[in-house]
Specification:
Layout (H helix, E strand, L loop, with lengths): L14 E5 L11 H7 L5 E6 L10 E2 L9 E9 L3 E5 L3 E2 L3 E7 L8 E5 L19 E8 L9 E7 L6 H13 L4 H5 L4 E7 L2 E11 L5 E4 L10 E4 L2 E10 L2 E4 L8 E10 L4 E7 L6 E7 L6 E5 L8 H15 L9 H4 L12 E13 L7 E13 L16 H8 L2
Parallel strand pairs: 1-22
Antiparallel strand pairs: 2-3, 2-4, 4-5, 4-6, 7-21, 8-18, 8-20, 9-10, 9-19, 11-18, 12-13, 12-17, 13-16, 14-15, 14-17, 15-16, 21-22
Length: about 400
């Protein structure tokens, strides 16, 4: 079952969302010219005055608006018709709130059971491993807006020959396997990586590995055997089988970055040991429960999550919410060839700044004269940055960002 993913990028408000393309700010003199001549995705802010006969006479603005100015934001969308997505005209002096968010890469939550790569040890809470001992851990999602919080329970019953590293390896394999019953009932929330210190054995190699695969190819002849352990890029995996002296099959799927030459070597005589759990999605948070033989083992939060701003997932979610506000999406819009694609302007390689502007429009209530009937116009504008991007994103060659910020005073 696919997880329902909450979205909070427009702060729960109905919002008109503009994702600017990798283009300069519009140079069309009037809104009428903009409708006729602007290219797909082009953005401009226009000044409208009561003396004008229509919005088509509104003039492009490149300097800071003043309190009395009435403005609107527009973006060209190419279809059979010359469609323009725009905000309703609002007085600049009626802005209730405005803010700008710098680009920030997201950070995934990371927690550990026992050894986290620096300190701790899963051995501290376990005296011994005996046949038919039950080791159980649960991962509880605590993401805001996802109540009632679902739980992923993983359990292993030890065999006569098992050591603690066999237990941890089996649980790691369960968590990383999308076909286990727990993960099929509710799509995986985390990936698991076994961390340990011990004695190197079997020689050092580089290994060709692929994310999501259990197959490993070593750079040279190895001397490792089935049911032994190997570290790959710092993570410990149990070997399931050895087809040849230069290939291995792991019990767990490899969950690291695909690489042609990951550093690896055998490991035995384990000292410190732990299981690192990392959220799969940027906006996910979780807690850990430990039961049965794990009941005295400690867990820790090693990296707190950060949703970030202006990255691909953030923009995708903003466009999703904005399309709902507009009453359509790119996949089900009737007559989309005629009326335009309704967004989907984000560039997957670029970093963005996000600007949010809320205009307040008020009128005295006729029923209750001591109250105000208040309406909000909430608009979100994201534009690519031209400097300061960090991996995996890059800077844009052109962007309307600087002019938009100047006009709106951000």
């Amino acid at each position: 079952m696919q997880r329902r993913i909450p979205r909070r990028v427009t702060e729960g408000q109905n919002a008109r969302v503009f994702i600017a393309k990798n283009l300069a700010y519009s140079t069309e003199a009037t809104f009428g010219d903009f409708v006729d001549n602007a290219v797909d995705g082009e953005v401009g802010i226009f000044l409208y005055t009561p003396a004008m006969n229509s919005e088509e006479e509104a003039t492009i603005r490149t300097t800071l608006l003043t309190a009395a100015d009435v403005y609107f934001v527009a973006q060209k969308q190419i279809g059979e018709e010359s469609l323009v997505k725009k905000t309703t005209p609002c007085a600049f002096g009626d802005i209730y709130r405005k803010h700008q968010e710098d680009f920030c890469n997201p950070v995934l939550q990371v927690s550990a059971i026992g050894y986290d790569g620096t300190s701790g040890d899963i051995n501290d809470g376990i005296v011994s491993v005996d046949i038919n001992d039950i080791f159980e851990l649960g991962v509880i999602e605590t993401t805001e807006g996802h109540q009632p919080y679902p739980t992923w329970n993983y359990q292993y019953t030890s065999k006569a020959s098992d050591a603690l590293e066999d237990v941890v390896s089996n649980l790691m394999a369960q968590i990383n396997d999308p076909q286990t019953l727990t993960n099929k009932e509710n799509e995986s929330l985390v990936i698991a990586e076994m961390l340990a210190t011990g004695t190197a054995q079997g020689g050092a190699y580089t290994a060709a590995v692929t994310n999501g695969s259990a197959s490993v190819t070593t750079s040279g002849v190895h001397s490792l055997n089935a049911n032994e352990f190997i570290t790959i890029a710092g993570v410990v995996y149990k070997i399931k089988s050895v087809p040849t002296t230069s290939t291995l099959v792991l019990y767990s799927l490899y969950v690291g970055v695909t690489a042609a030459a990951a550093v690896s070597d055998g490991i035995s005589a384990f000292l410190l040991m732990g299981l690192r759990l990392t959220a799969i999605e940027t906006q996910t948070t979780f807690s850990i429960t430990l039961k049965e033989e794990f009941r005295d083992v400690t867990s820790s939060l090693t990296t707190a999550f950060k949703y970030g701003s202006g990255h691909l997932e953030h923009l995708a979610n903003m466009e999703y919410e904005g399309q709902i506000f507009d009453g359509t999406t790119t996949v089900n819009a009737a007559f989309k060839d005629k009326w335009g694609e309704q967004g989907d302007y984000r560039n997957t390689t670029l970093a963005y700044e996000v600007m949010q502007v809320t205009n307040l429009k008020g009128a005295e209530s006729k029923a209750l004269r001591n109250e105000r009937d208040t309406q909000f116009s909430h608009n979100v504008i994201a534009a690519p940055i031209t400097s300061g991007a960090t991996t995996p994103y890059s800077n844009a060659a052109a962007s309307p960002l600087a002019t938009i910020k100047t006009v709106l005073g951000l």
